[in-house]
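Two records follow; treat each independently.
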Amino acid sequence: MGTKIQKSVVTMYDLQKTLSLHQEGKLDIAAKSYQALLAKSPNDINVNFLFGKLLNDTQQPKQAEALLRKAYNAVSTNMGILTEYAKCMLSLGKGEEVIGLLSNHCKTSVELSKLFLKAQHLVCSTTELTEHYHQQLSFWNDSSSLMIAMAQLYDDRGELTAACDIYLKVLNKDPNNILALHNLATIKRRQELPNDALALLERAQTLGLDSFQLHHNLGNAFSDLNDIDSAIAAYSKAISLNPFYIDSYKNLAALYSESGEIGSAIALYENAISANTISKDIILELIRSYLRVGSSEKAKLLISKYFSARKGPSKDNVDLHDNVDLYDNDEDIALVNAEIKYLENDIAGAFDTLFDTLGDIKSDKVVLQCAKYAIQTNNTPFVREYMPELTNKKDSAVMAKAYLTLAERLSGQNAHRQSYCHYESLVKTYELPDAISLDGAADFCNRLSTYLSSQHTATSAPLQQTLNGGTQTRGNIFSQSDNELIVCLKAFCEQSVKDYASEIDRVANLHPYLPALSNDIKFVGAWSVNLSNKGYHNNHVHPEGDLSAVFYVDIPSHLNESNEEGHLVFGKPNFELPQYLTHEYSVMPKVGKLVIFPSYFWHGTIPFHSSEKRLTVAFDVSS
């Protein structure tokens, strides 16, 4: 960080002491110390630079931008300041601006060349980016550092094979390159190879890597492998190294909740705020946690303390860093304020709270939440006006279609039943063949039941999931390529999905809301659910998938079929409506049966009464 110290009211001793804390990884203490120094001398270039670097290093680029810009404008020839400022602008997605900053400096150092490539990544095609990469790589004599930077860019573009190839080339030259080991591990996890990911991470750790990113990713790998205690320890370590990284909090809170420790999950955020580790993300997660357990009064107190409507941070809060604007996005605050009204049974007020923001906030998430409230107040015209556009957007299509089906039902038109919700032709079942095992399908399911039961280590349902009276495995269960039962089941499910796509493709005049399917099948999630007596799934949809499916591994031997106990049912949402609607279609469970349907179908299960378990494997598919 070799920036020349300038004379100011900040003494060399004070700055060096704070810098030492920063370099030792004591980031929360260093942040408070930088804030105090900045209060003494707001124009000190070194304090602006170093505090800005700390904020950017801890995933807070919006807060870092003004500090680093001030430092850069004062000393634009300082390469250290230029580098950090460019990193910050890249974090904010300002590629063109960074290209302008670095166009005359990209061959000054490998670090600036890497930043130049990252800026090009934001504005050019993969082919153009690859050309820039080879030019820079040739200039810097096949620099491993530059190769790793390019691999990260390929990763960002979803080109995982290309990224892997580069990391392997780096490791072929330098088997102990800890960054290549770490980053390759994150790709292996997404390629459904959690054991490989864990081995790479542990090797990097043995070689000396001790970053918050390493421990966070160790937590992910342990969690995928159902080693919950090790995952909790890893996430806790990640938080101790970077108390501002919200994903570690979220994942750790989820593990606590699944272990039946809801209080510990909430205490994570409470303790962070008590220790003055304050960020907008942490405060909002605590608010959401309170809302999940029905503590709307506590949520309102937090909003009152830290946010004042459309005015920024509350002046009553004396602990906030003056340079940290917690109220930088009205969307989040509008959503939690609306949810509070919803929990207080003021659904019309919840709708109005969000609808009033639509002129200022261009957010599909807000529009979708408005639609939910509109449905519950019988405002079907809003749904019909706003949802069709969202059916064409990947992140909102499933919910938009699901809300349109409810508007159809409430208005009495029910056109969906003869088109994109024609359950009779779009819900398809496939039977596990006896050829799956030498001893037949029944024996296969028995052995699979024994194995899956051992994987259910949680004591409570996951946060924000649909389970009541049951547990769910973590990670993608189809990634367990070392288990013959899972491999065989995955192959059966994959072929069944292809058969489903072929059958749908033969239907004339397909409705545009039906998912466009191909033979390029990608499982975007696969998990096992174990329901016990009186257990059931709340009605829900799967926003991440094109198709969803459930395979019955084990079911109670006696179910009351006249009451549709344990049945998979379709067409009814998980919230109250202005008129009573029953489900529109149902499927009876059967061991060895696979049921496939579009992900936008509302679906859930009817509770059953039995001492025996209902064990399934569910998954989503994108195509």
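The next record belongs to a different protein.
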Amino acid sequence: MKSLPLHACTPSISSAIINRSYSLLHFTALVALFYYRLSSILLPKPKPSLPYLLVFASEMLLSIIWLFDQAYTWRPVSRTTFPERLPEDEELPGIDVFICTADHKKEPPLEVMNTVLSAMALDYPSDKLSVYLSDDGGASVTLLGMREAWLFARSWLPFCRRFGLKTRCPEVYFSSLEDNSDGPLHSLEYEEEKEKIKGKYELFKERVNKAGENIGSEEATSSKDHSPVIEVMDDEPKDDAGIKQAKMPLLVYVSREKRPSHSHHFKAGALNVLLRVSGIMTNSPYILVLDCDMYCNDPTSARQAMCFHLDPKISPSLAFIQFPQKFRNINKNDIYDGQLRKIFVIRWPGMDGLQGPMLSGTGFYMKREALYGNLSQKDVLHLKQSFGHSNEFIMSVHKIYQYGAIKNTESSSKLQQEAQFLASCTYEKNTLWGEQMGFLYHSVLEDYFTGFILHCKGKTSVFCNPSKPAFLGSSTTNLNDMMVQGTRWNFGLFEVTLSKFCPFIYGLSRMPVLQTMCYGYLALQPLYFLPLWCLATLPQLCLLNGIPIYPQARIPTLLSSILIIHFKFHSCALSF
């Protein structure tokens, strides 16, 4: 008997027809404009002025960027998942959740712990779920917060499961701004339990905040110079009567070693440490990566992702499932487009109809095997040259699909010693970590570059955009933060463009043309300011000095300029 599909992919035919028609009309107008420009340059008449040539060059660059942008709208698709058709819980694969934090002053421990608790409360078998927190700052307050979160989770997780809560981030759940209608018919039992849990949460908050106040200036370790610290929260939870409760997800605190004399490679380096540490502890075949301020808003996201990863038709080549980034702190005006709507509403659904969306930093379920490169070579010596000299980790590479959570205290102690070795700052020396294995180091945008290389290797990805946001985070809400973030993004994009991995050279022979055009658009995005500055200043100066750079009103070519201006305004309006 043929099993029912786990998901459905629906091409947006009407959108594709409209987009292609618009592209054809816009392209026709561009041809008319460039015909006028070239005829003015080539025909025997007074030579064009320097401003004329600069405007022409600006129009050329903008047109090339626009042309690459059309690849996003060529074949948009939408997807639907059917989690109810998944196998029984016992047959589901394991998932390791990676959460990264770096500075407890900029990223409050209470907010980080709420993200941790929401990840632990995912609607997924507890014995198949593990949560790892990377603390690059090595702050004691974060470790203390993890211990308190583990204690509170003993009460919070059973409460979520018992009453089927849909909002499992405690801070959001207990917020007066949220609709707390998750309990079954608001029964008396539910209300009583809710009040008990709320009291425990207030105590949890008080302890975490107090820990931060007490440590403050007494913090002994430096965020840039400290030894590795690994702590596993794995004591068996019991209720007040001493009776064992239901099993909880494994919770692990990881602070890798950092020394001023060794490059730490920022977030990519932290994620690679988590890959190695989790490899010898749980070794789940799939990983979920989250920023510390992006909590799990929909507890069913793991099951939705498995609808794609467990599909035998697409799974062999599938590398990751990307969920959109959505934010809870954006007002209705959103003048800086903090919601990144053009990316997650237009571009990523368009790429989903090609080879798949780009890796977007957070909110994605990655296949562990995809980050390990080509494993066809099974020679142990070769594996050690690639992955390093940890026998435990080499064994885990051979057993990616054998979930192996820590079993007892003795093995836990040995594994923690091995984990500290894997988290040392010298472990990656003379290995392929960051070069061919794990998250790659060639750019400060480790997500963009890693996803690009995966697509170049023939891997595919999927964009899953359910009606209820799977994850919610905090976005930039002021000009200064937006400029800092935008500068980092554009620097990372241009860094790849100027390297040997330029999408126009490296990607063209390894990816479909339309997929290459999508990456090419972002590669040229950092150059957008050049024609923008030129067209924002030269036309006005030329008008004041009587220098012609546009067709005269009696020339029919003027129509093309008017059309292009109209299209540009229309395109900008779609972004908002």
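Discussion point: Residues 83-473 form a domain with the Spore Coat Polysaccharide Biosynthesis Protein SpsA; Chain A fold (CATH 3.90.550.10). How would you locate this feature using only the token line?
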